Amino acid sequence: MPDRHKLVIRLVAVVGLLVAVAFAVDLDAAITSLLDANLSLTILAIILVQGQIVLSAYRWHFTTQRLGRPLPIGRAISEYYLASLLNMVLPGGVGGDAVRATREGKAREGAADKAYGVAASAVILERLAGQVAFFMVAAVGIACWPLLLEDTLPVGTGWLLAAPPLILGALALLAWVGTRLAPRPLANWLKTLGPSIRKAWLTDGAWLIQGALSFAIALLYIAVFALASAAIGAPLGLLAAAALIPLVLLTMLVPISIGGFGLREGAAAALWPLAGFAGSDGLAAALLYGVVSIVGALPGALLLLKRSSAASSRA
């Protein structure tokens, strides 16, 4: 299927989901809450987004060091800002990471295939470390559910918890098959993935740094959403934030929308009443979270402008 058709499908999905949510809740109340959002809390949320991006960039910097291809921290931060912005506005939520890996591969010296292989490994392992930590945080939040709300978890929660081991198992199987059936360059790269995981995550205490960074980043994501909810007048308590927000953020991993829009709003509108707020509050909080995330990543636009200017000057 051509890329433009996929983009149209995702745009239709986002609009359709948002329209469905708008019909399910009090849209006027959601818009009013959004327009009356507390400016101080919104600014604080934007500041915390900077912490997410900088710590994530340092995790990438650390991962590349472990793989023997040091990446200057300044370049890591600027590239991560760009990738974060692109992830919020491109379909699938990983387009920015693909751009990050490609740009870093081009910047490397030596054989092109080796440079791109290391760059791709570093990006994949850095993001995967974050996803593993976030699923662990989500599991803790779900364990808090009976303490906060009710014994019955939302429909689909079991699948969310089962997804990580299932996905990891499927990826391991694909990697094993790929080492035997894939074209030689890809097979060679897959054979290096296991040793790369050990270097980046496990040996010489790397797991301590990877774990500390990844859990800190996961908590920052939750804090930003909690601030967005508080800003629109629906402050969540600690247990409510731990139980609800990870479930909402997990929906953003489903690659059928753009930047998680639509799925995130639908999940928040469904879950916020469980904490004593209206569905319209969940919609407003999720929309504000999306805006805050984009605004927080806007410094990435400076890199895009710089790149465009450099290309124009060479033309």
What does this 3D model show about the protein?
The protein has about 325 residues and is an all-alpha fold. It has one domain (about 5-300). It has 14 helices and no strands. It has helices spanning about 5-25, 25-35, 40-65, 75-90, 95-105, 110-145, 145-150, 155-180, 185-200, 205-230, 240-250, 265-270, 280-295, 300-315. The longest helix has about 30 residues, at about 110-145. The two termini are about 35 Å apart. The mean pLDDT is about 80. It is a multi-pass membrane protein. Its main location: membrane. It is found in: Cell membrane. This is UPF0104 family protein.
Could you name the key traits of this structure?
315 residues, mainly alpha, 14 helices, 80% helix, 0% strand, globular, L-PG_synthase/AglD, membrane
The overall strand count is 0
Shape: globular
- Computed over alpha carbons, the radius of gyration is 20 Å
| Rounded average pLDDT | 79
Strand content: under 5%
Order of helices and strands: HHHHHHHHHHHHHH
Regions with pLDDT < 50 over 5+ consecutive residues?
A: none
Helix content: over 70%
Membrane topology: Multi-pass membrane protein
Keywords: Cell membrane, Membrane, Transmembrane, Transmembrane helix
Pfam family, one: LPG_synthase_TM
Organism: Georhizobium profundi
